[in-house]
Amino acid sequence: MNVDSHLVRLVHDILFREWDPLGVNADEAAFSEYSRYDVLLLQLLKRGADERRVAEHLLRIQENSLGISPLDPESDKLIASRLLTAYEIAQRRIRPARSAEELVERYQAGERVFNGSRIETDESGILAGCALNGLVLRNAYVKLSFQQASLRGADFWDSELKGSDFSYADLRGARFVGSVLSDTSFQGARLEGAEFNNACYQLRMLKTGEFPDS
């Protein structure tokens, strides 16, 4: 995944999960609702647009493309700030997280991509119940408890997640393509729209449309 594809993913996650002027993000099937605006916003960010210009663009999308009156212009400014932060972070070299605590701290500062992380312990249980929507942990090796965490749209592509606990987590739209899921718990998890094709779960390969047992 190159820098531009990371950026498109980050921009789209922010539009769908945080901006969402149509109020559709409870339904993971609507994930592509705002995808037509991703590239134009990315071009704005690349041209050095400031918070005001990005917020104005969001307002025009609502008025001209969606046909609605903006409910909260201040919210558009916050989303513009989030988009600028995501762009700045994505331009840096992606660094793996070295601990669960570091991952949470950097996530809360606006980072989303932690590819290649290797985290085998979380004695504090800090990730349980956390909001980690849009987290990207590709090619990672982690053994962590994500109990009751919100991980909507998270991406664990080709990661080894042996012994991790996703029980009662919100995994709607999450991706586990090609991941190793031995002794991984999904009890009570929300899995609508999640992808598990080619994941190895309890010594068997899951096919497209298959889900792990709880």
TrEMBL record:
Keywords: Repeat. This is Pentapeptide repeats (8 copies). It comes from Gimesia chilikensis.
